[in-house]
Description:
This protein is an alpha/beta fold and 406 residues long. It is 48% helix and 14% strand. The protein contains 17 helices and 13 strands. It has helices at 2-6, 14-24, 49-60, 75-86, 91-94, 105-120, 135-143, 163-171, 195-208, 226-229, 231-238, 273-292, 298-307, 310-341, 348-352, 364-374, 394-405; strands spanning 31-32, 98-104, 126-131, 147-152, 154-155, 160-161, 178-181, 211-216, 243-248, 260-266, 357-359, 376-377, 383-385. α9 links the parallel β7 (178-181) and β8. The chain starts with a helix and ends with a helix. The mean pLDDT is 96. Pyridoxal-5'-phosphate binds at residues 36, 105-107, 110, 134, 182, 187, 215, 217, 248, 250, 256, 261. Belongs to the class-I pyridoxal-phosphate-dependent aminotransferase family. It catalyses: L-aspartate + 2-oxoglutarate = oxaloacetate + L-glutamate. Homodimer. This is Aspartate aminotransferase. Its cofactor is pyridoxal 5'-phosphate.
Amino acid sequence: RFGQDVCPQAAEDPLFGLMAAYKKDTSDKKVDLGIGAYRDNNAKPWVLPVVKKADQQIRDDPNLNHEYLPIAGMPEFTSAAQKLILGPESPAIKESRAASFQTVSGTGAVHLGALFLAKFSKQQPTVYLSSPTWANHNQIFNNVGINIKTYPYFDKKTKMLDFDGMLSTIKSAPNGSVILLHPCAHNPTGVDPTKDQWHQIAAVMKERDLFPFLDCAYQGFATGSLSQDNYAIRHFIEQGFELCVCQSFAKNFGLYGQRAGAFHWVVAPGSDSADAVKRIASQLAILQRSEISNPPAYGARIASKVLNDPQLFAEWEEDLRTMSGRIIEMRKALKSELDKLETPGTWDHITSQIGMFSFTGLNESQVAQLQDKHHVYMTKNGRISMAGLNTNNVAYFAKAVDDVVR
Length: 406
Ligand code: PLP
């Protein structure tokens, strides 16, 4: 029986375990740099002003109800989400080459894509994940039975992109392999390829006939500019790839628990693209139906209201700049505190990395000391969520780092 001997005890999710340990800590000095969720300068969750406004408008609507959405989600949400992530001028939209589905946030989008690939690939594919990557990628692809390999990404010595290693592994991947890429604000390293490097990656993938699986959880959150953060996606589409894109509204709308996201499949240009997109959408609908029936409505309603209203959209862009701007300021502040303390090591990567996370280069034992001695909570791999820093704790954190690296 499963309960007696077949089902072994699984390890606790490290991130959610870290959250529990932080909650238990009674010190007033404690600092939470674990989970990737935005915090304001008082270390509090931040409801975006534009989200509050849109939420109120929805609640005031006398026609609001809680009926099921269609299987593919709210059409006005998916079409606006598509425009946002592919770019409003995308040839994929103009030529009706994209099938878009509302999903259970970014995680649900990655899962739907993985499930589709597992079911419809001619041969069992291999997915190449960056080393390191968001830990859940491993579990999601593993769960649907797709082989996983990795490509080098982060160079521990330079704390920068190992571009040569990345490109040479991608070059040697068998034709038809799936390459998972983070189009902006790579999690966990905060290190992104430059535009020129994206061009080279796309060229090699074209040559080798590799499938781009683009997981974008931070559009607008990285640089504050929506069009800068989807550059890689636009470039791959312009190159005529068939590809898929996973989109999350957790971070850029602060809608973490509402689970609003989308999955987009773009077929390659060609005379049969209209038929291809129809066939793919029909199969995605079956997968979606069997997994979740139809997606959750409330978060998507909020995002949709904002995305479809030019005035609210402009206010949202302002909120995005507030979040990304505060994080950039915290990068500068941390670097400057470490410089002041003359902390051993180089810390330029703190300001050159981008987005929610920084890969500090701290090792597992230093991370453990930070937690035990200084009440600072971060993942074992040395990743910190920059949003957990603020003007009240950045100097304390820098001193704690200084203590454990000496
Ligand atoms: N993909 C990456 C790379 C992420 O970092 C995250 C969140 O941390 C996600 C996907 C999915 O997040 P969510 O399911 O909350 O949208």
